[in-house]
């Protein structure tokens, strides 16, 4: 370790008036493993995307080997020998393993024909160094997620990078594969390769990194040698902020249990999930990306097949095989994927809000009572203060916050008794958040029960009567009372406890 | 409305424009008999286009409608002859025809939804099957009706307007109401717009899809009944030939997006009439029949370009 390979000087990154990176100045040294940690939305991925050319910084300078550079696109990054293993697997399913790894770096023989034998051999050697047994001739679509990840890693390494960015590379890897990856990282480090390593798993950071940078809400919090900081301190610094007063007071739920899950198993995703939800309760579900919270919600509403276990509604066992069944059992689900699942962009406000509840507005011939529909939509428009030109405005012309209000109205219109809210306030400004929290609070008082899935700990803590923490498809902790705090949740979510 | 909706009214504008040009170009065009002729001619594919609108809004396509027209029409005549060709026989044959249309649509719909095969492939297959069955039943010949009163429906008029036109207009009104004022219409738009959203909104996506193919099957049955009645026969090799192209063209010219999600029954009506007027004018002006396809093709592409460009 010695000379600096990358130096950033006052990097800012702005997305539509929101700064996701604020004044980041760091020096990354040659041959070190540089960890970056922070909560979801802290700016970790954005920071690395500024370095690999996916984003250009709004302000600030980047120096590569002490020379100022402008990394305007990924090709410039590639020429600087900066390689990235992305957070999501990004391979072409219809091509073979070796074709994917050497995509854009094909070996050609005579007459510009591809030298397939040599290409296969090269990839075989590469896998050998990775101690991985994947057939270079296999099609990507036949591989497991973990194998795909290894291919992605091999692809990045095949480019002989000077800097290797890894964004959550151990996600969905088994313990064995993680060990191989770590020993490989150490070997690369000995060869002088610099590794920028993002992870939610604090223990991994502690094990493998030389230094760790902590970001929070786009701000630089600290940069320490790994020997100077322990995991507890990391967790504290990641979340350390005061709770705002945007949350309404909590109400004590009734004793009656309205929803109970018993030993739910979804193969490979959920392991033995049991919990109960009381009438009027707001039950928070905390956990990191990939902890299985959304999958649990999807299992409850009948999108995912439950392999084992039972669901009881008001202590009566019931089978929910489709969202239709879920609505019939008075369960409403607000998806985290607003654009993909929550709203119809080319439908207007009215038709979006009444989409699920439409049967209520129809006579036996299926004719819609539009007057009643309009009246109801105006009611939601007033309660949620939905800002739209009219109820006939298409959703694509609404802001994200207003779209979210529409999707909330949409799931409330069938008058559910149980709400599953997945990332309720994703991408929503503070003012709107407060409105929505207050509304949810009022619903809880009226006897509605809520499962609140959120990556914003602040929200989980401020709203929930109890908090269930998940890690790798398992419930690792159930927190109540003053146990509901950010550090405690982080311990269970990162797998340090539980 | 401050901004004109070209998607919706584009076909009407072109229709009016074409109407004006045609009446200047040929003095015969505006004669009532000619107009009624055009309307009657377009009503057969027009009726199919009405049903096709639902399928296309739902993000699908049905290529089998032409062959299905021949098969259903042929069997209608067989049934008619079997029961003696009287009024009772006509009623039985139309019911039989509707049943066949529903079955044909259900087969297409189930293969697409439960079989998870692309609509294009499924209906390409059934298109070949339906045509082949038609040819086989009558050994590539003609289904001839023995009934003497049967042609009076397809040839007949009510209040001076040919019966097929009445049915075309009546069906257009019913389908317009289904699309715009019923739950079903809202659901098929939702599915065409984003299937996943529809699924999460507790809509039975498969059922709604299958019904759209049944709707087009019913349209085909009505159309083939009128067609066989008009001709009092069905040619196994020629009946319904290229109906799928005319029906799809009418829908697309009418502003319904091939990507699904929204569409207009009125547009399909305008589109069908537009195609009819063009045929009529090209004939009157003595344009080579070989070139008529070129004009039609240009019109389809032009109409879609216009709608896209003004958006």
TrEMBL record, chain A:
Localization, UniProt: Cell inner membrane
Known function: Part of the ABC transporter complex LsrABCD involved in autoinducer 2 (AI-2) import. Responsible for energy coupling to the transport system.
Family according to the record: Belongs to the ABC transporter superfamily. AI-2 autoinducer porter (TC 3.A.1.2.8) family.
Gene Ontology molecular functions: ATP binding; ATP hydrolysis activity
EC number of this enzyme: 7.6.2.13
Enzyme class label: translocase
Membrane-related topology note: Peripheral membrane protein
Reactions catalysed according to its record: ATP + H2O + (2R,4S)-2-methyl-2,3,3,4-tetrahydroxytetrahydrofuran-[AI-2-binding protein]Side 1 = ADP + phosphate + (2R,4S)-2-methyl-2,3,3,4-tetrahydroxytetrahydrofuranSide 2 + [AI-2-binding protein]Side 1
InterPro entries: AAA+_ATPase, ABC_carbohydrate_import_ATPase, ABC_transporter-like_ATP-bd, ABC_transporter-like_CS, P-loop_NTPase
GO cellular component annotations of the record: plasma membrane
Species of the source: Candidatus Infernicultor aquiphilus
One Pfam family of this chain: ABC_tran
Name this polypeptide is given: Autoinducer 2 import ATP-binding protein LsrA
Domain ABC transporter as annotated: residue spans: 6-242, 253-497
Complexes and interactors: The complex is composed of two ATP-binding proteins (LsrA), two transmembrane proteins (LsrC and LsrD) and a solute-binding protein (LsrB).
Keyword Membrane among record annotations: yes
Keywords for the protein's UniProt record, in alphabetical order: ATP-binding, Cell membrane, Membrane, Nucleotide-binding, Repeat, Sugar transport, Translocase, Transport
TrEMBL record, chain B:
Protein name: Ribose ABC transporter permease
Organism (species): Candidatus Infernicultor aquiphilus
Molecular-function GO terms, alphabetical: transmembrane transporter activity
Membrane association type: Multi-pass membrane protein
Main location: membrane
Membrane-crossing segments per the record: 12-30, 42-61, 67-83, 90-111, 117-138, 158-178, 210-227, 248-278, 290-306
Keywords on record: Cell membrane, Membrane, Transmembrane, Transmembrane helix
Cellular component GO terms held in the UniProt record: plasma membrane
Domain of life, source organism: Bacteria
Compartments where found: Cell membrane
Xref: Pfam families: BPD_transp_2 (PF02653)
